[in-house]
């Protein structure tokens, strides 16, 4: 006899920051939540750089022990690495999360709220009775949730089976993370615009005085010798590091696709919705994804809570990517412009504008801005939110 399927209120697929937060919020509201993750340990195969911006740090209660020192300085370099543009804020603008411990912290929060977290479990696809097939350590089994949340990354398989939009505009990124041997006086975020190293995007060095994050990203088809070679080339001359810290004996390797096409239009259906990278909730210009990840997860949890408790007809239709996408038009235009920078000469010419007062002001507005992900009216996280500092009535 085939075992009866399990029937949680919500199945969340993917235990990145988006999936963990959505699960914690829903379980904290009393809903039965199953969260599956194909990794056996949340500290392995990390993809994100883990950069949190000021607005995130202000609005969300993140564990201080899992955040690096604050960064106030951004340094922008042309291909020649000469005459960089340095922007310094009067406030702490960035902190880099120690993502493995942070994921484990968020997992404990979700489990304490009542989430059934299942590691080493894969989403296989639909069964023959309207549910899903999963494969865990003990074999294949069926789950029939009322709703499903796709938090399974930029190339979401769940989105395909929910018949929702999928990301098609992607960058490829690769990064090394390692502890510093020598500390510098001023923690800083260094970015190099050089289409030979990072075609259509950036190479970066984040030095917070404790760890170095050295990476490159760009359009995969434009890396003439592959992204690995580009990372090697950049790591040997990466600004913001002492010579001793450019060649560490060991480093954690990270990498993966980065969606930069803006929020997808169709991110919900009667069966479920998309969050995080699966929804394209990443800044098209800066490729920052953790702030929109958290905010869209709050919106998703509130939408699903209303659907589960109040049975409001068509409530999931309000989780509308097309409406929110309009807020990204300016950055989508700038993303298109950055993608057209194909030669070092063009990048050097662009820096002439950045060195003017108007160019510096525009860069400050983008990099140190107050505004982040759109704040739709229905997004009101629960007062018992485990990570949110700001309290809203439900």
A few lines on this structure:
The chain has 394 residues and is an alpha/beta fold. The protein has helices at residues 17-28, 54-59, 99-113, 157-161, 227-235, 290-310, 321-325, 329-339, 344-354, 357-367, and strands at residues 10-13, 33-37, 51-53, 73-77, 85-88, 94-96, 116-119, 122-126, 132-136, 139-143, 147-150, 170-179, 188-192, 203-207, 211-218, 252-259, 268-269, 272-274. The strands form four sheets. A seven-stranded mixed sheet has the order 5-4-13-14-15-12-16, sandwiched between helices.
Q: Keywords for this structure?
A:
10 helices, 394 residues, six-stranded mixed β-sheet, 18 strands, seven-stranded mixed β-sheet, disordered C terminus, globular, FAD/NAD(P)-binding domain, alpha/beta
Structure characterization notes:
This protein has helices spanning 17-28, 54-59, 99-113, 157-161, 227-235, 290-310, 321-325, 329-339, 344-354, 357-367, and strands at residues 10-13, 33-37, 51-53, 73-77, 85-88, 94-96, 116-119, 122-126, 132-136, 139-143, 147-150, 170-179, 188-192, 203-207, 211-218, 252-259, 268-269, 272-274. The chain is built from ten helices and 18 strands. By secondary structure, it is α/β, with parallel strands linked by helices. It has one domain: FAD/NAD(P)-binding domain, CATH 3.50.50. It starts with 9 loop residues before the first strand and ends in a 27-residue tail after the last helix. α1 runs parallel beside α3 (99-113). A hairpin with a 2-residue loop joins β17 and β18. The strands form four sheets. Strands 5-4-13-14-15-12-16 form a seven-stranded mixed sheet, sandwiched between helices.
